[in-house]
């Protein structure tokens, strides 16, 4: 195999891996709630360890702005594992101060033609066993497949995957937020870098993303990317009237098996004040997950 | 306390103790949950408490070694109102090993589930008493024929609660892009049909033969299959998702869960006498299902063809009063998923029983439509649900409305109304006088 072919193959594999990647949600910055301070890492160097080579910064000075295409490419190339299991603690905060707590597992595996993600709720008891399986095809023209298992009926039911911007399982993260995995696909967004900023004391490159498909639910996004690890630290979503509708931030960035991971993600609905906090209690990467787990027939077994 | 019930209780306690002990030995890798529910329904045509049900359902799941786990669910059910099954409940329809322990007339303790689940290489095995659910139709069962049903509350109870789990060996194996499920069911339990005098005693001539007029009727006990191996049931399902379509092929060789009303006219004590003897008969169920999504819509369907179904005939000269025939039934459903977790689902169900008998009231087509509106999809918070079933032939039906709210503490409060309408000869209309309001509190921990 010629060197050029090998390089191209490596790039293709890297891009394919990166699409399933690191962080499935992002966390939010906002100024007015008590959660804001908790959500963010203290200022300073990003987490522990050294970023892996594929994520090495291309821009050595704070003044130098990468292009939007470069920013997306680097985010896409961020290393990731092909199979992961996250144990999650989820808090749903309403604007009146009420909090609902849930425990869940997220299992994700990359298959040759799609990424399959299984969410299983383990607590509280009244929703324990509820499971959602999503098949996100690499072919963007193909609609995702999605099935919901409700233990109360013991049936796996196909549900529509069209409403990607709907809140996921009663929270403020949408299916689209989860699918994006803290990356923006060049096929779906145009990106333009606009300057430098800081999120939680961490320097980041600010960019504006315009969805190519109006069905994504946002007219415009602002994203701030830490270019030392090519990880977005914050997304701010706007509707057609330029009203800020949602803010997602990620914090507590750490390396797990050499992959940068946000252990704390916060989504704030800027319209109704709801906040969803997702904390990864544990992150296992490169796990040996059997393919049979990611089938609708196996939903009742809850990823076991 | 019946000896059989004592044996069942001992078996149940030993099973739970083994699981708990094993769980303890594996460093506490077990999960114990408790579901409790209190429900009161008040009939409003002749106001009275129709149901005052309380149940406790502890469930224990234990991680054993590697890929194996044990699971047990026990249900204690009490209904002091005693109108749904007045007097001492009979369990003749159930296999002895599947019977509940009766405590007086109004309380029972039932081992709902007890199974081991694990992997042997690529094979996935579930061994023990379990529920096997085929199909996904709302409110109507087409493919869901593996497990029988307790009709104590007709079709009002959640199918998960009214389905009668069976002792089953359930094997699943990947088969290229599909999955193959094989079932062997030695458990010879059948539908539980409430007795005369109960709120939901089924008398509609659509489903059961009326008593012959002018002749005394002697009902004999049902003739149950007795052979352990030869009378066990076998099932097979192949399912796959191909190009966005969920597909399944299903086959079940089983006894029909509803007995066939075999009739004989005899000359006894100087007079003609009609004897009715319910018998269980073998049936081949062959069916399949499909489902696919298109934007906000999900289109789905199920079809089932069953052989050797028997319908009764009004022909008094017929030697046994029944006629064999085949039955075809299917349901087509269209689900719309709207904003804020809204589901609007419409179904049309049709069933055709074919027989050569000229005077078989059950032959021909039955058409039933349904409409479901749901907000909340079963998670926490406020849930609103309405469901409407309508029989187009007999112009009768069932309308249900429910509103529930789940507090973060795990308590769910719900209230609603369940109303039947139509003539007394209809499947639903015969229960028109049982309309009621209900109030329920459920807790999970």
- The sequence of SSEs of chain B as H and E is HEEEEEEHEEEEEEEEEEEEEEEE
For the largest interface, the chains and their residue counts are: A-B, 40 and 49 residues
Helix coverage percent of chain B: under 10%
N→C terminal distance of chain B: 31 Å
What's the N-to-C terminus distance of chain A? Answer: 41 Å
What is the name of the CATH topology of chain A? outer membrane lipoprotein receptor (LolB), chain A
How many DSSP H or I helices of chain A?
4
Low-confidence stretches of chain A: 1-62
| Beta fraction of chain B | over 45%
Helical/strand content category of chain B? mainly beta
Helix content of chain A: 10-25%
How would you characterize this protein structure?
The complex is a heterodimer of chains A (304) and B (445). With 304 residues, chain A is mostly beta strands. Chain A has a single domain, classed as Lipoprotein localisation LolA/LolB/LppX (outer membrane lipoprotein receptor (LolB), chain A, Clam). In chain A, 12% of the residues lie in helices and 40% in strands. Chain A has 4 helices and 13 strands. Chain A has helices spanning 3-18, 35-39, 68-77, 175-180, and strands spanning 83-93, 99-110, 114-123, 131-137, 145-150, 155-158, 189-199, 202-211, 220-226, 231-238, 244-256, 259-269, 275-285. Chain A has a 13-stranded antiparallel beta sheet, covered by helices on one side. Chain B has 445 residues and is mostly beta strands. The model of chain B has no long low-confidence stretch (mean pLDDT 86). In chain B, a hairpin with a 3-residue loop joins strand 16 (322-338) and strand 17 (342-354). The radius of gyration of chain B is 23 Å and the shape is globular. In chain B, the strands form 2 sheets. Chain B has an 18-stranded antiparallel β-barrel. Chain B contains 2 helices and 22 strands. Chain B has helices spanning 3-25, 159-162; strands at residues 30-43, 48-63, 69-78, 101-103, 107-120, 123-130, 166-175, 178-185, 217-219, 233-242, 245-255, 260-268, 271-279, 282-294, 297-312, 322-338, 342-354, 364-375, 381-391, 396-406, 411-421, 436-444. At the A-B interface, strand 2, strand 5 and strand 6 of A face strand 1, strand 14 and strand 15 of B.
